[in-house]
Write a structure and sequence with these properties.
It is built from two helices and five strands; from the N terminus they run βαββββα. The protein has about 100 residues and is of the alpha+beta class. The protein has a five-stranded antiparallel β-sheet. It is found in: Secreted, Extracellular space.
Length: about 100
């Protein structure tokens, strides 16, 4: 789940959430060739997903933040969105708290 608003629209006044599907890494690489192991991809239907202003927002699974919105292209038109995998940086996070 994460914040989102329509391209060219205004941000919402309340927190937004959406149910996403984790998208297989190999399939995601066919769209995002720069994908690395510290990324997680999600996919949903066109018109939903990460968009402008969402960067840095959380990807939460069962109450635990597992990702941070990183990039996607184009915005919310049925292509996978890419998140930074929090677990890949847990040592750095603990050392810098």
């Amino acid at each position: 789940m994460h914040l989102s608003f329509q391209l060219g629209g205004n941000p919402p006044n309340s927190l937004q959430e959406i149910d996403l599907i984790i998208y297989p890494q190999q399939q995601c690489k066919s769209v995002h060739s720069e994908l690395i192991n510290s990324h997680i991809c999600t996919l949903t239907k066109a018109g939903e997903g990460a968009c402008h202003g969402d960067s840095g927002g959380p990807l939460v699974v069962n109450g635990t933040q597992v990702g941070i919105v990183s990039f996607g292209r184009p915005c919310a038109v049925g292509y996978p969105d890419v998140y930074t995998r929090v677990s890949s940086f847990i040592t750095w996070i603990i050392e810098n708290l």
